């Protein structure tokens, strides 16, 4: 090993704690950076690539065929902001379908299928123009009796069988000959012109669809303005809906992008803390090793070699941290990207290798630059001066003495007043300690708020609204039938007589409240047609006890009014006061939007209305479940026995409301937040330890004098701890509001990533009971870091300390 290598090796070996701190903080920064950047690239890249190569449409607009001509529709290609357009294409939206009885898998034969939006184009398999369709399996239809569907809209086991348009007169049937799709879900069924004519002949409404690309289409606001420009070019009321590519992007990337904002926040905190700790450690090594630097130079080491030696002492543990951070980041991405892969409908993605390489090289570069600044100062130091000084420059005694004089006037024990004065003797070092504690406090405050928000989100989605109940009542015919086995329009699906069941439940002793609800089987015109189909729920009875969150407007109060879920409202651009159209079995019903609620049901998009809305229009509300809340102290088993006697004649059965389980992605987020918080807090505390240990070593002679004058070990510990407690308090008072601000800034993009408007109980989690303990976080971090050096100072012998220079 070369002489330089031996110096580096011995330096790392002497500073094991400091090396551990540098490795840990670099690991934290790299891990969070790899995760955030990697997740963003891994989940975003497939959609962006497909959208670009297939020339996807920014907006697909459906026009009411009874209010506008094909020529008027085509003329919208010249609306303001349009750079490219295609169409018009005939389209029939939200047609109810079932899987044909010819499906070889009997459990699927006759099963309700997704509502399908069917279109026809001159050349379905074209590889030019806008919104190029891609065939995944089979072929494109060539005859009137054939159709192609997305793979997600039909059972794989039934490929080659038929799909029946069950809501149309005559129930026309088509053979599924291909699985194909549009990158932006502009339609979910593709037929020949003659095949499409079969649907309109059977009573389907034929509208027109235009596809557009715009000069400015990066945000929802941009697309809303673009849609307004198109609407202005046709008669009022002619535009029925517009499908945005941003909605398709959100469906494709799923919830994985929700991880990115808080991982970026932790990455920035980790990076800043890493730079700070490395600066502390290397500066401390230079300050405490001035005599060693002088010896090295007198032995022939050049300024460059001295600088490289001290830089390398930081680079070695940092390199270890980079390797560990990259490895753990890649491993932690596996479960997250696995969930994203399911939502993308592809094999699980992985973090690209170039992401790990860029983050690793960037981290090493930052570490190198940070470490080289004090290292270059060591290299430029005069050998003679270093040997004469022999140790770190003395503290500013004049400033320190003034601070001690002021502190001594306080009605405090002398050891405490000495500790309070110590930070003023070395203000630069005090600032570094405060900065480390500040970042630790910000991390803790941010994490506690985020963790509380996650927990509240879980509780809100799992135990309120349609999930709130002590007991549930379902049709007896559904007992033992897997949930979702039969769709709402399937004749095999059993329903409840809502009026009779409600009356029976009201008479059962112990019933506090109950309401009935079910999926009406209706679809909403203009709702996103990709992914899980939107649901329109009908509700019978009072559900005010369920703590369902209303975000804007009011709850419905009369037939014809509807409350729309926040995710559906965001995706489509629905606002309170708008009119929406729902379709059940090819019958159209216009509803007034009176409120937007925080949707707690499992479906992606939903709306809810009074069951009377459907019965008044001669439609079936499809109530298939009652949620029952029992009075306090009522035994569930005894109540079930009483209820069964009343409900059995109504073909209804009672079940306990089982826990639907925790959201896996939220659990992963919680675990990541806890892990990063522990790591950053530990790093902050270890940074304090490093500074206090260095300060204690430099003041060991002074401590020997204090001990000779009668200072006890307990007083020594009190003095050392007090020297950082005040700094920790100030850093904590500053760090808590900063942590709150970081949490607020993170929540908004997280909600946007999953297409949700979060309710106030999730966005406002910092109560007085939560903030008051956090104000002490800075003191706790500072004391934890100073505890070991304080113990060492207390155990040091007086004679040894007095002999130390």
UniProtKB/TrEMBL annotation:
GO terms for cellular component: plasma membrane. Coiled coil: none annotated. The chain crosses the membrane at residues 20-43, 259-288, 309-334, 354-376, 431-454, 664-689, 717-740, 765-788. It is a multi-pass membrane protein. Keywords: Cell membrane, Membrane, Transmembrane, Transmembrane helix. Residues 265-382, 675-789 form the ABC3 transporter permease C-terminal domain. GO terms for molecular function: transmembrane transporter activity. Signal peptide: none annotated. Residues 432-638 form the MacB-like periplasmic core domain. It comes from the Bacteria. Pfam families: FtsX (PF02687), MacB_PCD (PF12704). It is found in: Cell membrane. Belongs to the ABC-4 integral membrane protein family. This is ABC3 transporter permease protein domain-containing protein. It comes from Catenulispora acidiphila (strain DSM 44928 / JCM 14897 / NBRC 102108 / NRRL B-24433 / ID139908).
